[in-house]
Amino acid sequence: MQIAQTTRVVFPSTLLGTIPDPYGGHNASDCIGLYPKPGCGSEPVLSGDRGGSMQYATFGIMIAALVIIGVRISRSIVKRDRARDEALGLND
Predict the structure, then answer these.
(1) Distance of alpha carbon 49 from alpha carbon 55, whole angstroms
(2) Structural domain boundaries of the chain?
(3) Running DSSP on this structure, what letter comes out for residue 22?
(4) How much is the pLDDT for 80?
(5) Rounded mean pLDDT of 47-66?
(6) DSSP labels, 38-89
(7) How far apart are CA 70 and CA 77, in angstroms?
(8) CA–CA dist 81, 4 (Å, integer)
């Protein structure tokens, strides 16, 4: 007979003073809106947070994809123009 043993992790309760201020000491009306003032919010902790490494990686991937698409389009235009010029006998 097997006995399943589970462990229980008990986290200490947070005290009132240990919760970080989400507005960094600013007035809440200054930090909420379309254009919050500089210094509001918190530094990115996880890679998926605003300003984290995953956000920069996604931006880089999007720019690289746009560059690849642009190169493919320009190559196909040059290829089309060369074929058209060759068909008309303009390649001298």
Answers:
(1) 8
(2) 21-45, 52-92
(3) T
(4) 94
(5) 89
(6) TT-S----STTSTTSHHHHHHHHHHHHHHHHHHHHHHHHHHHHHHHHHHHHT
(7) 11
(8) 73
What is the helix (H) or strand (E) element at residue 28, kind and residue range?
Answer: helix 28-31
pLDDT at residue number 58: 92
Per-residue pLDDT tens digits for 62-77: 999 999 999 999 999 9
Which pLDDT does position 52 carry in this prediction?
82
Query: Using CA atoms, how far apart are residues 40 and 83, in angstroms rounded to an integer?
Result: 58
Per-position DSSP letters for 5-19, written without gaps between them: ------PPPPPGGGS
CA atoms within 13 A on the CB side of 21: 9
Record the pTM. 0.54
